[in-house]
Design brief:
Four copies of one chain form a homotetramer. Chain A has 162 residues and is an alpha/beta fold. Helix content of chain A is 28%, strand content 28%. The first copy, chain A, starts with a strand and ends with a strand. At the A-C interface, loops of A face loops of C.
Chain lengths: 162, 162, 162, 162
């Protein structure tokens, strides 16, 4: 069965608006990245929202939970802003069972030079295919269980809490 | 324990010589890619050779086998040209036991635009961390067992034999 | 004699801070670009300031005027934010005589994919070598006299006033 | 009046064939580069051939001469392999009068990382707009008269003969 990919925004999909110098969201770059990676994993992509994760509300997270529960796939990747990725992971762990859910994102927008997005997507797809059901964060080449991960705000690196 | 990364060359590490228009090998780009991916997995990198995989000899493969057996790590990634990647996988499966070995590479050199190398490396690192001992090929976002993989020469895509 | 290159900042040299998602200035990318272009024109580079051109004050412009007048080179390129590039051009035209001054910049930061900076630098260097003394803006592959140029804020394109 | 751009191939437009690892020609990347540079110079683009300049014959050069003479534009840019660029320049100088012709190219293919092509195109467009009628080579940020230029094969740099 295909892997479900839900897009929620975050740095991963941000673009530079050359008219006002602001970062903004247009479309997801997921399809371009999968093509770049010559990916042959069967995927179903759906954009749920296009927001900065600092602006993600309880209602937004409920929507993500609902989509994870109602989709037929049991392997799910969610692209997400890094700032509240671990928070959304906790909400998902409470409300979605028997599915392998992998949250990932990027520190640098895909469209900029030197993005980590393609690397993270490659690892997230692999983790989604191999990890037992549960909710995980895939960043920095590693995977973390939902209840043992935080983003270190000073270094930008994900690490275990304990 | 760290993941061992062995470099053997292949398209992954090829560069363009602007003086004669030929592709050639200089140094591996592995360190750059790991930095780009903000990778925090502990790795030990060693270059075993820098060759086109069509030129890989039995002696070369014996060297790779020896290195896999003698290194202390039990999770190993090998970058390798795609043309004979599945052949080397078979040799490794015969001679190396109880280690998770993941071969990966690229269809387009890292240094060129539009390379799949960063994506493949991300997935290979994830597969190396999660798959049970055995020999695998990680390409196109997927993993293949050593005894059920071939590169389709017409499409450039890896696929099951059976 | 060498061409003098003065750096003042602008989008050209902006970078993305992955810890807070803001754009900021670190060092100029001028040296990297000249190397990328395999440039063999003799140049002298000096950073005068690293600011957004919307924040450029009269004092800043006086400093640029002073530097243009006091340097020994009579061909000068100034990298500059696009928003007030034509304003600085007017100030320079009033106060600097007998020198060929070419202002240029970028709509997209050099460090991001799809930047116009390398193209603009190539044209600015060529215009500086060939145009008679005067003050010019070089953008969009064209050159404009200081008294007949504005940036169209809606399209981001430079155009004649008349 | 528009600037005429003739495409003849060369490293500038080479691509990497990921199925056989060879470099080859498909379409020109001229349109992409002009878009990247946000170029607003009026241009007319025509592909005359797509060949390595080491394979360019007298017949090929006659065709280029004919096209330069018969097109209505009097400012012409020709993209060309670097190895015989100065040779074609000499042929053009003998047979085309009263037009500004600028030959340019690239040491690294546009499609690879670290290409000088965008920089060279920016300078060629500027030189075509500003130089008096004649035949020139534009490389390394400089322009050379047709009768005083050669490519140094050891350094890859264009230089004066005298």
């Amino acid at each position: 069965m295909a892997i479900r990919i839900f897009i929620t925004g975050g740095t991963f999909d941000k673009e530079y608006n050359e008219l006002n110098g602001q970062l903004y969201f247009k479309d997801t770059h997921m399809h371009d990245l999968l093509e770049l990676g010559r990916c042959r994993v069967s995927v179903e992509i759906r954009t749920l929202m296009m927001i900065d994760s600092l602006e993600m509300t309880e209602e937004d997270r409920n929507l993500i939970v609902h989509q994870c529960n109602s989709c037929e796939e049991d392997k799910i990747i969610i692209t997400h802003g890094t700032d509240t990725m671990s928070e959304t992971a906790r909400v998902l762990a409470r409300h979605v069972k028997n599915k392998t859910i992998v949250l990932t994102g990027a520190m640098i927008p895909i469209k900029f030079g030197s993005s980590d997005g393609l690397f993270n997507l490659g690892s997230a797809l692999a983790f989604a295919q191999t990890l037992v059901p549960g909710v995980y964060v895939a960043m920095n080449g590693r995977y973390f269980n939902w209840d043992n991960v935080r983003k270190n705000r000073e270094t930008g690196i994900f690490e275990e809490i304990k």
